[in-house]
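The records we work with from here on pair a chain with its fold. The integers have meaning only within a learned vocabulary of local backbone shapes. A complete example follows; check for yourself that the lines match position by position.

:::
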Amino acid sequence: MRAHPMAGDILIAVLVLLVDVAFFLIVSNAPNGDISPWYVTLPIDVATVAPLIVRRKYPLPAAYAVLIMGALHAALELGTAAAVASCIFVYSVVVYVSRRAGVVYLVLMLAATITQLQIQVREQWVTDSVVAGLLLILCWGFGEFVSARRAYQAEVEARLHLLETEQDHATKIAVAEERARIARELHDVVAHAVSVIVVHADGASYAIGSNPELARTAVRTISETGRGALAELRRLLDVLRDDRPDERPRVPQPTAGDLTDLAERMRTAGLPVELDVDADFAELPAGVSLGVYRIVQESLTNTLKHAGNGARAKVSVHVAGERIAVDISDDGAGKARPVVPGSRTFPGGNGVIGMRERASVYGGTLRIGPTPGGGWKVSARLPVRLDQ
């Protein structure tokens, strides 16, 4: 019935028709049977039940066709098809059209039924009318129940679809954010390590003949930096490949408290760094502390790559009220750069994009640009506390 509703309606129509055919055979074969001949009865019976087949597709036209044919069927007293079809269509109009159309059809059907009974049964027409009216009203109430249930199911399905869509969008956003986070981590690790390796490799190539000891020191630094970078890359890749990350031992991420070690590594790489930081960053949220470290790391890496030989860098990290101020500047080895008046931010590569993302994700700000006397400056402001 649910898979093929028209087939079910055809079956209902055939059963109702068979009941009327059986009624015709019984009455016509009775000694005192008084019924219209078969060539009148059978066409009217068929015309009365035929609209049941299309009651879902064309409920309103079929309903009024039954109202007209049912009156003729009942007037000739040909059986029960008119009464059954009328009840079915009171229900169908409410379910498949609307409540208002159902009320109108119910009133017309009640009026037609009462009038028909009053004409045909003069003595007990009141009782029969009450019974017929209650039956039609019962069918109307059943239609109201089914219609409300269908509306409720449609609303539930719509809400579920909306929820699935929202969950799908949330999953895509979460995946994009996680990919961006991993890309930032990979870039920070690789860019820092490769920059140190390149600088030391260049120094070793120049000093290998004149100062072998300095070349050996540079090669050792290259080796240590490469091993450290590989270890961090393996850790990130293990997290990506592991299906059960909670069962693996956790390795702490660098924090703002590790800036002293970072500055020392940069000095070893050949970049003099002046460090001015607060003594304790333990109260910072883990994400903000990691962001401070990565911003300083990326800035110093860029200084090492682009500032040239003889450049010096200064790092200042201080907590001021509800913000932590991060300033990294270099002298660009004394090379002055033109500054556009009023310009405060400058585009950059993946490293600059990563720093901006780290600042904005926590509601902070980042400004990057050259300084008038030569060099470059990065200024970040991040919140000390994150809103819950």
The first strand starts at residue 273 and ends at 277. Strands lie at 273-277, 313-320, 323-330, 365-370, 376-383. The two ends are 54 Å apart (CA to CA).
